[in-house]
User: What shape does this take?
Amino acid sequence: MKMWLCAAALAAAGLASAPAHGAMTVMGGGMAEQCSKAAMAGKADLADQQACDFALANEMLTAEEQAGTYVNRGVMKLRRAEYEAAHKDFNAAIALAPRIGEAWVNRGAMWVGEKQFRAGLEDLNKGIELGGKEPEKAYFNRALAYEGLDDEKSAYLDYQQALTLKPGWNLPQHELLRFTVTRR
Assistant: This one.
């Protein structure tokens, strides 16, 4: 039995939804922790980003804490669609701690936001392989990348996986409504 999927056309911008972003927890009580909390709370303004800037310039952080702070600052930039600046931060995080899945997933989301879907798939696959605290976001972003490449079946399966990992999450639920599944 074959499963055929059809998705409605993507929005005029090329994506039905914006990519999902995942921040990292950085502890320690300093500005790096403040940066982490702001990123986790969904903030993206320049005032919150200044906590990240200060932490990176002035605090004694381990390589992993530095990488997490770069990820968090990159997420804030990504939320403002500052793709080139976010890319630099995700690259810095990967250079410092290449085993942190969130850096790869967020860089993948950045590529998807720029409609460079193949590059996005590569990074998202690496992020999924490395694991992370919010794998549902990786699968959601990978579904967007698959849709951008006209692979509706893979997109559908990844939206389903995102919803399985986080039941009740509105974004994949909404995207799945655009699909019609027929069996032949």
